[in-house]
Amino acid sequence: MTPNKKFQKYSLGLLAGILALLCLPQVNIPVGLKGIADAGFFSNDLEVFEEVLGLVSEKYVYPPNHKKLFSAAIEGMVKNVDSELLTLSKNPNINTIRYKNQSTRYRLTYDKNHDWDELLKVYYFLHDQSDKAITKENLESSAIEGIMSSLDTYSQYMDKDSFKKSMRDTEGKYGGLGMVITMKDKRLYVVKTMRDSPAERAGILADDSFMSVNGKEIVGMHIEELANLLRGYPDTKVTVTLQRPSEKRKRTYTLTREIILISTVEYKTLDNQIGYLKINSFSKQTEKQLKEGLEQAKENDVKGFVLDLRENPGGLLTQSVKVASHFLFKGRMVVYTQGRAEDDYHEYRGLYRDSLHQVPVAILINQYSASASEIVAGALRDSGKALIIGENSYGKGSVQTIFRLSDGSGLRLTTSKYYTPSGIDITEHGIVPEIHIINDVAGEEVQEPDKTGPTLSSLNLKTSSLNKFFEKQGITLTPEHDSAMELALRILKNNTVASKKRSMEKAREIAANINY
């Protein structure tokens, strides 16, 4: 074969190889991100960022604004740089970044390919002008954090270590401090401490707010991040600084982690054959522990239940469906979820034929009842069987899906929303009780009834009036047996039919006797 023909054969083979390569299905490239695919085809730069952007574009519960996403990503990278050396000037037409006496400009539109090129420009500018002191990895993670911060409170990027911790199986015990925590108004609080836990023995109280953990400020931190800081191997120490609402000074505690045995359900049979079920959270152990309580109730010939979901921050969706199923007809809807796409719709229905659907139930909730708690309360309220007593619930009605990324990190992304069987958006309204308890006791914030929700509370009662009324009748009220619980017991007394109407009639009789 002549050299010319050899070259022609080689050229044709190379061309065929290139064509074959270009025709490979790009299974790992999100639809609609062609510019990103082209940019990353021969490079690993921003590969994880590309995955995150693709997931947000395709899976996030709300349609993405790509201009907003790219803007947040660039600003995330800029924040990674020493502010004394960098300035960002923004205006409607073009933005200018100055770093070490050098500058670059970028302009974002609603064209994803164009915005990707602009992000690349800033990415390489910051990396190169820093003489590679600002690593590509740090810039990429900062860009991802920027995107996630532009979404909702519950969507979160987790690095490899955080992702491993979040994936640890919950088997009913862990190394921790024994605190239930929640987020309210973008601040992290203690909801309660567990009995005989390091937190309880140290004197930490409900409503203490977190300031720092091991010297690290927790402002802007996600609840999962704080939980990961508090948890750890048994016999290791952690230092937490908290602010008590009644005091101006901060309190710092150094605590030793212990194995915390999680009891999510407490049961006791009260007078008048009423069963009291306190569910603290929805973990893998919850239904098993609930069944144990229900067996005891059956032995005691219980005629009704008070289901206490106050301070319950939620947990597993599957467990909330199972718990609600014990009090509903088999096949009755518990909750449904709706994602961005019309066909991203899922229903969850009652599971058990042998249920307690004919037994009257009163449910106690407050402003810290969230997520799975709201699913149970909403399902039983909408069934027409259970009466809800207390405060408007928290309003955490979004579904988060966990995605594993190619480098071992992970993404917690809000992909759909919960709705009660009657179609109420839990995130927007929370669960509105039929009997609203206005907590006007000294030192506590008064939560007024919801006037914007789908239904107004049918009856409004003040805690102070309830306390006075019951105490005059010789009832000793305690934190474990407060006026809301006493009210629920009296509503259920001698009531053998699961009827919201009958329960409300009883509640109005009691209210009529209270002297305001």
What topology does this entry show?
Layout: H1 3-22, H2 34-40, H3 47-59, H4 66-79, E1 86-89, E2 95-99, E3 102-106, H5 112-129, H6 136-149, E4 156-158, H7 160-166, E5 173-176, E6 179-184, E7 187-193, H8 198-202, E8 209-213, E9 216-217, H9 223-230, E10 237-243, E11 250-256, E12 258-261, E13 265-270, E14 274-279, H10 286-299, E15 304-308, H11 317-325, E16 333-339, E17 345-349, E18 361-365, H12 372-382, E19 386-390, E20 398-404, E21 410-419, H13 426-429, E22 435-438, E23 459-462, H14 463-472, H15 483-492, H16 500-512
Helix pairs in contact: 2-5, 3-6, 4-5, 4-6, 11-12, 14-15, 15-16
Task: Describe what you observe in this structure.
- The chain has 516 residues and is an alpha+beta fold.
- It has three domains: 3-151, no CATH class; 173-261, Pdz3 Domain; 265-329 and 354-396 and 422-512, 2-enoyl-CoA Hydratase, Chain A, domain 1, CATH 3.90.226.10.
- 34% of the residues lie in helices and 24% in strands.
- The chain contains 16 helices and 23 strands.
- The chain has helices at 3-22, 34-40, 47-59, 66-79, 112-129, 136-149, 160-166, 198-202, 223-230, 286-299, 317-325, 372-382, 426-429, 463-472, 483-492, 500-512; strands at residues 86-89, 95-99, 102-106, 156-158, 173-176, 179-184, 187-193, 209-213, 216-217, 237-243, 250-256, 258-261, 265-270, 274-279, 304-308, 333-339, 345-349, 361-365, 386-390, 398-404, 410-419, 435-438, 459-462.
- Strand 20 and strand 21 (410-419) form a beta hairpin.
- Helix 3 runs parallel beside helix 6 (136-149) and helix 4 packs across helix 6.
- The longest helix has 20 residues, at 3-22.
